[in-house]
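Chapter review: from sequence to fold.
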Amino acid sequence: MTQPLSTSDHPMKRFDITGTEIDRVVELFYICVRAHAELGPVFALYVQDGDWPAHETKIARFWRNAILREKSYNGNPMRVHVSRPEIRADHFPQWLALFHQVLQAELSPQIALQWGALADRIGEGFRTGIVAMRQPKDAPPKLF
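The token string follows.
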């Protein structure tokens, strides 16, 4: 009799990383976010001190879903980001640079590169979504 696949053995996972590693990267990333001169105050508007563990758990579930194909995340991150006017398109390059720093410090170069590429695609999607959804309806599209 065959054993059921564990989440880390899911045949459709994007790359070889564990849920524990994802949790650790997310935790360390948000430690850096809280200390960041520009991103920290934006996050502080929406995540209170005692709420960080719950936020980190939610974001770790997002990444577990995106990477390991777990079905543990239920949310609409685009809507969340667009609905918060303090989050600007120019925050995403800063967010991604910080995220890449944590990935490179915590993971093997190959895994950091793979997760970083996925984060870049997702971050660019959020950035362009914010630009598109916040422009006036009758304005020509911004193509940057």
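Two observations follow directly from the output. Residues 109-134 form the longest helix (26 residues). Residues 1-8 have pLDDT under 50 and may be disordered.
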